Amino acid sequence: MTRWEYATVPLIVHATKQILDNWGADGWELVQVVPGPDGTGLVAYLKRPKSEAGQ
Question: Could you tell me which CATH number the domain at 4-54 has?
Answer without folding.
Answer: 3.30.70
